[in-house]
């Protein structure tokens, strides 16, 4: 980071994110390094993360995606009962990302409503662990609640206020269930004057004392009286006001005009254009760079001010007085991204879906306060007369490096609304509950313990095995390649050799972890390595058996439910195999998380191609080919009738026909599930298929018993 590495709050935040599973709200005044922290985290974190933001511009600046697009949230209020009802279908790629996620970053959290955060919670629980808030994903929420607030229209709040104490994110029902910690960055890097910092703090906290108002209004000066006004940028509340100022100033210049038209490729919405699609410039035009220089020279940065000196078809030369430099700037490209899984590395990465190429300049006699967020100026004229919140005024004032460089174009007065009680209480709670290094260590200890405890918890696997057994016993006319008796024995063996053994180790694990950090305990490390080998040996045969399990049932709803149970069991066992394989070589939290995520992706890839139902073998019926002919006949007949296949003949009846090879209507009637009406309607066709098959295969049907199978 560009800030000193000794910043205690930044170090604390880094430890919470990297070494624990605690949800973190990272806040701080303007210029305290929140954005820099996020950029560094993206570069160096071992956790699988995505970065989101509430608006397209904020997402573009953060190098992420919008909350609405990724989680497919509606734009209106999301009531608690609505958030539980899936509205949209999610792509397989997006589901895979969600299931393999460790960390969700939401930048500019101040603009996120409580109901939106609950909508995110519902999506995460839908595709992950439905019992845990946010599906067990860690949250990093970045922003300053004293800057831009969430947008809530009166009619929307009338619906939400019955469920939420306030519209702010901290009133989210899911967030209140799981708890979180908050860290406020204290060191201000943008400003260094104590008086100016104190004034900004007073505005941020809405302490409009006479002394504060007097000190601010000393900076008031009519625009026409400002010396060297061309060196200032005006920050105003609305686009229309900024556009008027820029057009008027550009119109006063007499030189040749040139227009630069952006090139848009792929998916890049007009609402997130980072600069004007058509940029008109003249020599002498005041401009602001809208990108950081990606070259080694680092000649310009987002927010740097200069004056157009000359231009040609492909570039613009800008003179910057602050460092007496002439910079030739060519078009650059902004990329719109979506997250996807890299098939080779299995990592979550940003995939470019569209681009916007333009000269990275904006007319800069004036810009809106909203667009100034995150920028820093040496000289600024603030027009906050129509500011709709104190937060907007604070954003504008805090863009300036010094009080000397700040000019107010209108006097500031105390707002005619009171401070938000919910916000004041939240601030007080945040300050009172500020964490320390000891709490980080405790959170780290608990996090590692929970990671390991989850590895040795087989309650869900036992439950799925028992549900499998119950379903197999309950479903009528089920044909399966694993008899119920064998499955019963398998369930009992799993409980004895896996679940009970793991359960006995849980108290020992808790004792080990109570002593300190699990990853630093050598004795525990050795136990985990041995446990890894033992459980791999127990789980691999079960996984092979589950993977090879095939079945068919007449009732497709029953068949679907059993398939879901078996698929879920296969997923759980594969995950356990992955984590115990990792534990067998030593416990390292980051590697354990990676192994777990990659196992989820491997299963998702296998699930893309649904396996065909296998043909029955000699172990199931004596003549699989005849069975297939009868099944095809049954399907064709059902299609003609527009009815389910089991209304023609049940699966069990087909099996008995193949085993007994009936040669007459009377012999058909001896078989269970075949009555007079069935024989009258379909008997002739069935007997013809059996007869033709026997003739073709030189089979004597009289050699086969004509009674029902034993046990039928």
TrEMBL record:
<dbReference type="GO" id="GO:0000723">
    <property type="term" value="P:telomere maintenance"/>
</dbReference>
<dbReference type="InterPro" id="IPR002121">
    <property type="entry name" value="HRDC_dom"/>
</dbReference>
<protein>
    <submittedName>
        <fullName>HRDC domain-containing protein</fullName>
    </submittedName>
</protein>
<dbReference type="GO" id="GO:0003676">
    <property type="term" value="F:nucleic acid binding"/>
</dbReference>
<dbReference type="InterPro" id="IPR010285">
    <property type="entry name" value="DNA_helicase_pif1-like_DEAD"/>
</dbReference>
<dbReference type="Pfam" id="PF05970">
    <property type="entry name" value="PIF1"/>
</dbReference>
<dbReference type="InterPro" id="IPR051055">
    <property type="entry name" value="PIF1_helicase"/>
</dbReference>
<dbReference type="GO" id="GO:0006281">
    <property type="term" value="P:DNA repair"/>
</dbReference>
<dbReference type="InterPro" id="IPR027417">
    <property type="entry name" value="P-loop_NTPase"/>
</dbReference>
<dbReference type="Pfam" id="PF00570">
    <property type="entry name" value="HRDC"/>
</dbReference>
<dbReference type="InterPro" id="IPR010997">
    <property type="entry name" value="HRDC-like_sf"/>
</dbReference>
<dbReference type="GO" id="GO:0000166">
    <property type="term" value="F:nucleotide binding"/>
</dbReference>
<dbReference type="InterPro" id="IPR044876">
    <property type="entry name" value="HRDC_dom_sf"/>
</dbReference>
<dbReference type="GO" id="GO:0003678">
    <property type="term" value="F:DNA helicase activity"/>
</dbReference>
<feature type="domain" description="HRDC">
    <location>
        <begin position="620"/>
        <end position="700"/>
    </location>
</feature>
